[in-house]
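I'll show a sample.
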Amino acid sequence: MKSHGSRDKLQAAASSGHRRVLLLVFASCFALATFLTYVYNTSRLASASASASGSAASAVAESALPLPVFDALVHYASLSNATHRMTDTDIRAISAVLRARGPCNLLVFGLTTESPLWVALNHGGRTVFLDENEFYVKYLEPRHPGLEAYDVSYTTKVRDMRDLLDAARASRAAECRPVQNLLFSECRLAINDLPNELYDVAWDIILIDGPSGWNPTSPGRMPSIFTTAVLARTGATAAKGPTDVLLHDFQFEVEQVLSKEFLCDENRVAGSGTPSLAHFVIRGGGPRDAFCSGQDSTAATSQTPQEKTEFGGKGKKTGTGSTSTRSSDK
């Protein structure tokens, strides 16, 4: 009986050991399967992420206008004999910035002969026009499907430029500050009646080619220059990085004086414009009470000594430039 009992014990011990080996093998196989599943899923996620990034980049590349088409449009636009069109050099300078930044969010003050060209060159992006003439907006929209334009009611006059500038300087730390929500601005130079969503767009390029300013009762570009300067420093536009600002008809008094005040000489890109087109790069943020370096927030003089020299001391630019008809005014 003793020998039978020992044999049973040995058999039980062998059976128990066998089960432990099987359990160990099973656990090892389970751990290996879990590890391989984790590696496989991680690899798939990485591949999917890379594929999504590549697809997004590919989508942007595909939406951009092919360069031969881009160049052909610029070429034929520069040869146009349309009335009141831009010069060949101005068209090519603006097109060069669009090629570098597009497709992008492009805001244009003024509806002009070149408006369809800007829409075409920014193919795949968003191009929005703001114009003083409600009837011209309604006239162009059905003739150019896809044209997005809004009319703006300007309350300023060219003849009031000095008074408006004095008021803006006096309230640079308050109503006319560089960083603010334009929807609620009480600054006389602020445009605050646009569709609300336009203030939330991250504008990459802003082209100032309006409103008209060819006589003392014209609105002038004082509001569009000030509003551009604030947009570029505020909200979504400031958050996405620098904004390229292109100012047409730069040879005139309003454009020179207001750009010096709000767009700033230190932001001007040397060699990228023309005598009649200035190119600025505006970065977001900055001081609360100054648009440009060296500005005194408490100063509210009607003219600086330099302005008195440049513009004859009475707000009138010397020479023939200030009295010539603007090529882009309708």
Q: What stands out?
A: The CA atoms of residues 140 and 198 lie 20 Å apart. DSSP finds ten helices and six strands in the chain. The first strand starts at residue 105 and ends at 109. The chain has two domains: 1-63, 65-323.
